[in-house]
Each structure stands twice: as structure tokens, then as C-alpha cells.
Amino acid sequence: MLHQKPIDLRHKCLFYIGHIPTFLDMLLSKSIGGSPTEPAFFWKIFERGIDPHVDDPTHCHNHSEVPEKDEDWPTLNSILGFRDRVRKRLLDLYAELESGQRPLTRNIARTLVMTLEHEGFHIETLLYMLIQRAGTGTLPPPGFHTPDWTALSEQWGRIPAASPTQALLGPATLTLGQDDSEAEDEDPLLNGTDDVLNRTYGWDNESPARVVQVEAFKAEWRPITNNEYMAFWRSSADKDMPKSWIEEDGEIKVRTLYGYVSMSVAGDWAVLTSYDDLETYAKWKGGRLPTEPELRLFLDTYDVGHEGGANIGFRNWHPVPATTGIKSLDGRGSNGGVWEWTSTLFANHEGLVPTKLFTGYSTDFFDGKHHVVLGASYATIPRLGRKTVRNFYQHNYPYPWVGARVVYDL
After folding, report:
1. What is the pLDDT of residues 222-278, one digit of tens each?
2. Sheet architecture: strand order including 167-169
């Protein structure tokens, strides 16, 4: 399995096991100095993954050159040994910080946060790759019992329906992002204890804070479900089936890390597919997909987040039905544990300062093909569920755990 590519547009699984510690090692060297952890040539193989254009895979940003033959790749044991040595380097840094041998600066703090969140992002990447082979190679999560799908279905069947009246939002003034520029990290006047500790470190595209106006609009209380998309898909003979689905013995089922489940179980989960697919569905319903400010306004108003019990941070190893729109709860609830597409292109904005720690993290994808996605999935670590995080995927990339809700102009 390690040498397989569940998704052709990504590296083989083994790459990600080496990439995560390599990224940590490289950023530690940038931040505090020092030579690469041995073997140093891992930096050349595992530095950066790939995100080629879906419609032209020969077009891709700068990335590592990996071996072509399986036998030329480092062994799993050598990669795990490297990982352990890098982790020792990290633990040594924490010991120096705790003892006072090394002062904690904004640059070091940012490095620690960035490498942690990078690992969180890639855990999710590896899982949405592996789910494509669930039931045909990928094993269920070890140490977890397979869910009692029958009992869960009965429980979910008792969730009250959303209000028949769509949510009305706006007009509103909204602040997107936060003020956390990496460019200020070296300013000695901004490296006092309060400046270093009492701040939320983010990715370059989160900053600076921007004030935007949101006009009035209506939104569906819940993301498009598998059942809803199924009705649309069956009416459109030329539409490809979502990659989150699979046909088995003539029945359309939904992929999970435990294997395939029937629509009787997963019908009310959000459908996970590309922006293009869901935009087409929205038009079929007479609406559209929300802009980033519109979706941010909806989530800020009605989503309870991880602290409110949302399906984030591996509370489950699968989506669940959404619970927003229940009148007795003032509409507040969860979208079921998925990221959500927006119609906003991932692009530069005034005041954005590109990161030097992770060169090209955002700017390489200001290509007119990537869209902003917001929220968090069931496999997103909770700190990445903060409201300023802006994830992004190509509009026609169908594999990540991203759904969408329909909105309507007034």
C-alpha cells in the first residue's frame, strides 16, 4: 500500500510519511539554524508534494523530484528512523526553551505552530487518499470499533428537520482574517513576552484583517446531502459519479474508512465532491454557491464549532448529518463535519505578505483554479477550525472532504 497512489494527482503514500518530518526539519533549520538531520538527501526527495492542474497534470508548481522506481525509494524503516531523529531535534528545542537556554521568539513560535498545523493538514490529505482504497486495501482505523451503522441511522433519523424557511443573512459588515504578519517577526519591539505568547499564529493568507460588506442573501440551513445530489445525478445522464461514492453489486454506496456504507446510512451526510459538481447542482436548484464572506457570515452566525460539539477533530471517523436550522436551537448546530466550497477564487489581497518560512505556500496557487474553502472536516485538528483559516483546492478536484450549501440572491 505504501507504494500505491490511491489518487494519481498525488504522490504515493510513502511520500507523506517522509514529507512531514522533512518539512519540520527544514523549518527548524530556517528558524534556529543547524544542518539537516541525516540522511540529508531526504530534503531533496521529501521537501514538497504535488498539486498538478487537474485538467493538465503536466503543469505543476515547483516540487520535489522523487524516485521513479519503487526500489529506489528509501525504506519505511529508514524514514521512521529519520522521523524519530527529527522529533528528537524538536524535543531538544522545547527543552532549551523551557530551561531558558534559548528565548522564545515570534519566529520560533510561528515555526512550531506552522509545523504542527502542516502535519494536521497532511494527516487529512493522507486519509482522503486512503479512503479511495477503503475496502480494497486500506484497513479501518486501528483501536476503533466499526460503528453500529444501524443504531446510528436510527439515532440520526430522530434529528429534527431544518426549518423550511431558509436562513436570511445580511446586510452586514464583516471582518475577515486577522493581523498576524510574519514580516513583523524580526522586529525586536514586537518580541516581548505578551507579543510572542498572546497571539494567534496563522498562515500568510489569513492576514491582514479586512473589513468587507455582505449584502442580504438566503442560505440553505444544511449542506447538499448525498440523497439530494443523488436525485440530481440520476437526472443528468452525463454526470460522473462523485469520487466519494462507489457502485457495489448495483447499489451506490458511500466510501468510509471502515469500508462502504449504503445510502440508507449516509444519505443525509453532506455529499463530498468538486466545486464544479456542486456549482452545477446549485444552479439546478435555482441558486449558487456562497462567496467567502457569505459563508463566513453563515458559519459565524450558526455553526457551533469544535467547542460546541461539532464533528471535528476525529470525534467520528466519518461525517454525520448536519444539525443546523433547528428552530428550538435558534438555528445553531454543525454541518456534519465537512469543509465547504466558496465561489471565491484563492487570490492575493491587499496587505498579504508571503511567508518566507514556507515559500510559495499561498502564492503558488494564485492561479485562477483554486477556490477558498472554509470550515473543517471530521479529520481536521481543532486548531485548524479557527475562523480565519482559509483552505483551498482546485475547482475540479473531487477527492477532499468538501461539501457545499446553496445560497440565493434576494
Report:
1. 999 999 999 999 998 788 999 999 999 999 999 999 999 999 999 999 999 999 999
2. 167-169, 217-219, 407-409
Contacts of 376 (CB under 8 A, 6+ apart): 306, 310, 312, 337, 339, 382, 384, 385, 389
d(CA 312, CA 292): 20
Cα 272 from Cα 258, distance rounded (Å) = 17
Closest CA to 284 of 330, 328, 337, 231: 231
Cβ neighbors of 188 (< 8 A, separation 6 or more) are none
pLDDT tens digits, 109-168: 999 999 999 999 999 999 999 999 988 888 899 999 999 999 999 999 999 999 999 999
Q: Residue 323: pLDDT above 70?
A: yes
Considering the entire predicted model, what is its pTM?
0.95
C-alpha cell at 395: 475547482
Q: What is the pLDDT of residue 7?
A: 83
Question: Among 389, 391, 369, 384, which Cα is nearest to 9's?
Answer: 369
Smallest CA-to-CA distance from 29 within 113, 117, 111, 114 is with 111
Q: Taking residues 65-92, what's their average pLDDT? A: 93
The end-to-end CA distance of the chain, in Å, is: 51
Tell me which residue of 294, 409, 289, 404 sits closest to 339, measured CA to CA.
404
- The gap from C-alpha 407 to its chain's centroid, in whole angstroms, comes to 22
C-beta contacts of 346-351 below 8 A and 24+ residues apart: 346/205, 346/370, 346/371, 346/372, 346/390, 346/392, 349/205, 349/210, 350/210, 351/181, 351/207, 351/208, 351/210
What count of Cα atoms within 13 Å lies in the side-chain half-sphere of residue 328?
A: 4
- Beta strands 259-262 and 251-256: pairing type? antiparallel
Helix pair angle (13-32, 106-130), 10° resolution: 180
Candidates 331, 316, 338; CA nearest to 269 is 338
pLDDT in the model for residue 50: 55
Cis peptide upstream of residue 36 (ω within 30 degrees of 0): no
